[in-house]
């Protein structure tokens, strides 16, 4: 009998690479408002905390509402052109679903774009539940998003794994009482991830299957 019944995934940097679309959208927004361009690497470090954390530090308070509006509009065009699945993502989801695991998404990305990306990239069918921070007004690392998913799917923290890409995700898992696996394909460095003390760290998402199949996640 499997110890774990539910695997919850973060989206950006874990299953999906949308960093080029995000960086391009931010720089289009800044240019339209007369602000200097930002390096993609710097923008990437701000991804994962929600739109406010991404945009607010880059513009004056008076320009913030308009900046959000321009940025979100840019993503309608850029995401279909530039977003892609990370290597192995679809295969991992298909395998886990086939083995009877319940799968869910917990993301700080706006819900409209999350839903679009899951459908556009062909992985929506694998998930029993998708929950985004803007739907509950509670952003990771607050534990509420994970707790609500577990409650909805009637699975205990001890039967749940959370897979993310940031130190932020490790903290979220701790607060929810869930073991967290961090994959090094996102915006946190290995040093940042290790400092957050997740349960496991893997280089690629495909390694998750090996961990589960070998029963090394005790």
Automatic annotation (TrEMBL):
* InterPro entries assigned to the protein according to its UniProt record, in alphabetical order: HAD-like_hydrolase_sf (IPR050155), HAD-like_sf (IPR036412), HAD-SF_hydro_IA (IPR006439), HAD_2 (IPR041492), HAD_sf (IPR023214), PGP-like_dom2 (IPR023198)
In its UniProt entry, the species of origin is given as: bacterium (Candidatus Ratteibacteria) CG01_land_8_20_14_3_00_40_19
Task: Give GO terms for biological process.
Answer: DNA repair
Q: What is this protein called?
A: Phosphoglycolate phosphatase
Instruction: Output the Gene Ontology terms for molecular function.
Output: phosphoglycolate phosphatase activity
């Amino acid at each position: 009998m499997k110890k774990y019944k539910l695997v919850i995934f973060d989206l950006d940097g874990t299953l999906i690479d949308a960093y080029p679309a995000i960086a391009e959208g931010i720089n289009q927004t800044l240019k339209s408002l007369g602000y200097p361009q930002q390096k993609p690497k710097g923008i990437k470090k701000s991804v994962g905390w929600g739109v406010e954390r991404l945009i607010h530090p880059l513009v004056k308070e008076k320009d913030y509402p308009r900046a959000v509006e321009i940025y979100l509009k840019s993503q309608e065009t850029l995401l279909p052109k530039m977003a892609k699945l990370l290597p192995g993502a679809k295969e991992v989801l298909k395998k886990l679903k086939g083995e009877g695991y319940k799968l869910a998404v917990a993301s700080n990305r706006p819900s409209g774009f999350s839903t679009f990306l899951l459908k556009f990239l062909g992985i929506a069918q694998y998930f029993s539940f998708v929950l985004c921070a803007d739907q509950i007004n509670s952003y990771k690392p607050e534990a509420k998003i994970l707790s609500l998913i577990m409650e909805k799917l009637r699975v205990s923290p001890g039967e749940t794994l959370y897979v993310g890409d940031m130190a932020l995700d490790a903290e979220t898992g701790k607060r929810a009482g869930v073991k967290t696996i961090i994959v090094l394909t996102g915006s946190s460095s290995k040093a940042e991830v290790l400092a957050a003390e997740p349960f496991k760290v893997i280089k690629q998402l495909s390694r998750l299957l090996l961990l589960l199949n070998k029963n090394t996640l005790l």
